[in-house]
Design a protein that fits this description.
238 residues; alpha/beta; 7-stranded mixed beta sheet; two-stranded antiparallel sheet; 21% strand; globular
Length: 238
């Protein structure tokens, strides 16, 4: 079974909107999250979709799926956590409790505010995860990455050719993911304090494949990003 988890639990404070989280703002004529969800609803391999939303916006999220006629797959809307790691773990546990987890089940976790995800990226995440156990979507960077321990002084300049920017999806074989989450919590590490699930994965020496993303697979965080995304959408529609 191939599951998708659409991570849309943030409240979007950097968008400077008090009335609505950013994932529900319009991109063109549809909410950002609808653009994202459409790509997972049309993907032939994805069988069930778990949408992680702010608890107070869960009914609104369900209404949107009906309004934009997203059908053909079983889905659930669940409350999200404080960060991506917690939200993915909540998705995995919901799947376990609701449907059970099989040995070959895969979870493809994607940011709800990355609406330009492609079918190629989804398909390659699934294939790599089935082969290696996990995958993360990345892009090479045009700029050098500088490391500072305090935000004021430069401490290290890692070799540019080894640096990649993380995108999503990040994808996991579910049984192994559950074991790693259990190991993490039993060791006294709070998932709420761990923002990067791939770091937990490789901490336990698990293989994680890298999938090439796209520069346009952007994350819409602030008003400038939304302007860029609308320009990109208009160019695609013209």
């Amino acid at each position: 079974m191939i599951y998708a988890s659409i991570l849309a639990a943030g409240l979007g404070v950097r968008m400077h909107r008090q009335d609505m989280p950013k994932q529900f703002l319009l991109l063109g004529e549809k909410p950002i999250i609808i653009h994202t969800l459409e790509q997972f609803f049309i993907n032939a391999a994805i069988e069930r979709i778990v949408i992680v939303a702010p608890s107070e916006w869960a009914p609104y999220t369900e209404d949107l799926l009906g309004q934009y006629n997203l059908t053909g797959k079983e889905f659930a809307v669940i409350p999200g956590g404080i960060n991506k790691t917690v939200s993915i773990s909540m998705s995995a546990r919901y799947i376990e409790q609701t449907w059970g987890i099989g040995d070959d089940d895969v979870l493809v976790a994607h940011d709800g505010i990355r609406p330009f995800i492609t079918q190629r990226i989804i398909d390659e995440n699934i294939a790599a995860t089935q082969k290696y156990g996990a995958a993360v979507t990345v892009m090479s960077t045009n700029d050098a990455i500088l490391f500072s321990k305090d935000g004021h002084r430069l401490h290290e300049v890692p070799p540019h050719q080894y640096m990649f920017a993380e995108q999503t999806p990040q994808s996991y074989v579910l049984p192994t993911l559950m074991k790693i989450l259990e190991k993490t919590e039993s060791s006294g590490v709070s998932l709420a304090a761990e923002f990067d699930l791939p770091r937990l994965w490789i901490r336990y020496e698990e293989m994680m494949s890298m999938i090439r993303g796209e520069y346009f697979n952007m994350k819409i965080i602030n008003p400038y990003d939304l302007e860029v995304a609308n320009a990109l959408l208009r160019e695609r529609q013209s």
